[in-house]
Design brief:
Helix content is 18%, strand content 50%. It is built from 2 helices and 12 strands; from the N terminus they run H-E-E-E-E-E-E-E-E-E-E-H-E-E. The strands form 2 sheets. A 7-stranded antiparallel sheet has the order 6-7-5-4-3-9-10. Strands 1, 2, 8, 11 and 12 form a 5-stranded antiparallel sheet that branches. The two termini are 45 Å apart.
Length: 173
């Protein structure tokens, strides 16, 4: 009799644990697009969850010394999609004429080019002079300070990963 009670209690607890794990998996573990900034030399990387799958690359143009902001969305198949560029002057590497399917506007003293460019990854060499920054969820991160190498060659890309949400904390698995 006693053995039967212990056995049924063990089965009950096992079923309860299994149901709890299933509920936890369905409610707080999700798949999300994770933005990864990787130092190509050391393979050290930082991972970020982008709310609404959006981020901004910001830098100072190396020749004209004017600010440039590039607005990206993480799309299907983890593609990085450039949606618009806002800049203050025309020059080397900056758009100066409208291409097919692009909209160009002058807003105050700035130019805005709305476009639809798609990248699987973005490769950059960064230095402190152009003030390379990435803005994620309203937080500004200096890319030069993020990487510890002397020559800072980085790769930015997205990957699907599981995330665990517990209260106000999010953990990338």
């Amino acid at each position: 009799m006693k053995l039967s009670f212990v056995k049924s209690k063990t089965i009950y607890i096992s079923i309860l644990i299994l149901i709890t794990l299933i509920i936890i998996n369905l409610t707080i573990i999700h798949t999300a697009n994770i933005l990864i900034i990787e130092d190509e030399k050391s393979e050290i990387y930082k991972e970020f969850i982008c709310n609404n799958n959006e981020f901004i690359l910001s830098y100072t143009h190396s020749v004209l010394l004017t600010p440039v902001e590039e607005y990206f969305i993480i799309g299907e198949n983890n593609k990085l999609m450039l949606r618009k560029t806002i800049y203050e002057s025309f020059g080397v590497g900056l758009p100066y004429e409208q291409q097919k399917d692009e909209d160009f506007e002058i807003i105050g003293e700035k130019f805005m080019l709305t476009c639809s460019e798609e990248f699987s990854e973005i490769n950059m060499i960064i230095s402190p002079i152009p003030n390379h920054e990435i803005i994620i969820n309203g937080n500004v991160y200096n890319l030069f300070e993020m990487i510890n190498e002397e020559i800072k060659s980085i790769k930015i890309y997205s990957k699907q990963k599981k995330i665990l949400k517990i209260w106000n904390k999010t953990i990338i698995l």
